[in-house]
Amino acid sequence: MTVFWLLAAALIAFTMAGLLRPLLRAGRAPQQPQSDGTADLYRGQLDELEADVRAGVLAPEHRGQARDEVGRRLLDDAGSLDAAASAPNRPSPLLAAALLALLPSAAIVLYLHLGNPIALWEASDPGHGHDGAPSAAQIEGMVNQLAQRLRSEPDDLEGWVMLARSYAALERPGDAAMAYAKAVALAPDEASLRADYADVLASVEGGVLNGLAFAQIQRALALDPDQPKALALSASAAMERGDTQEALRQWQHLHRLLPPDSQTAARVAANIAQIGGPAAPAGAAPQQVAPEAVTGRVSLGSKLPRTPAASETVFIYARAAEGPRIPLAVTKRRVSDLPFNFVLDDSLAMRPDHRLSGATRVIVEARISQSGQATPSEGDLIGSSGPVSPGARDLGIVIDSVVGARPTQLPSGSR
Questions:
Q1: What pLDDT shows up at residue 179?
Q2: Strand 294-300 with 395-399, pairing
Q3: Strand 395-399 vs strand 362-369: parallel, antiparallel, or unpaired?
Q4: Which pairing describes strands 381-384 and 327-334: parallel, antiparallel, or unpaired?
Q5: Angle at 77 between CA 73 and CA 80, to 5 degrees
Q6: Scanning 35, 53, 122, 205, which has its CA 20 to 30 A from the CA of 338?
């Protein structure tokens, strides 16, 4: 940005120097006009006048009057030549000062109005990250500017959608919900907009989908029964209510809409398998399980040190029997879903270079977290399988013990 402004200043200075130099240059003493040719002309007119008198064309008594007229014309022409020679050499300091004040200011104002000052931000400028992106404070500033502009332009649908998504990215779900409400009011028949609105409403209510969010989910599906995000939210809401059959129906509907080889389709297929209901309605294509996938069923033991709450989180993950204890695949459910079936495969990997298919032997564990966090803590309940090979099917995991002094480390951020 500094280089840009230095170049701009140099161009402005060069332009102003070219404009101001002739206006401020001191005038040189005017040269005497070259009037020899003019004098010869009028001398010839006087000679013609004398010849006319001798020839009798002009009466002698009119000779003086005619000579005076020729003399007046000579004096008038001589004065005009003097004025023309001296006028251009006068300096114009007032005009120069006006140009010096107005032209640079006008150039800067026009650039700020028509140009793109934001594009001048560089990674070397203060307040930017190492990758050249604007800092968090600058992003906040731009979002606040957009919010300020929308106060005077409340009918700008694209502006409200952009503001809502910006607030959501900044993890300000309350503000995002208010912006989405404005956008939905402007476009009430946009199904995807209502699905996004439902998502942030659920965040506002601590992840609950069967509150304010559910009305928006239903409205989105009424407008477009094939809206992918609305289908996924509807299935999750059904699981939240304990309605596994409705969740299964919605997941199967969504799976048919997705490209078969996409990661999203693989995750939806895993959700369908975890529910433990019929694989698909009559006439639907059967769900495929990857060759490396490990499948099984999780249940609670009959003798537990404590009774877990229905809302507690159940993490199911596979880790290498030998080597790093980082999970190769991980998923999660609620205690209220127990017992349930599960599928662990490469689509649930935490890292692309640490997958289930690359292991020789794995241990599958199921853990009930009191805190809902991925990191184990005292009081969590756990169950596990013995070492099995990737591709093992129909494992039975019973949660029947408490996490000990050496818990399995599960990185935060797992899903």
A1: 93
A2: parallel
A3: unpaired
A4: unpaired
A5: 145
A6: 205
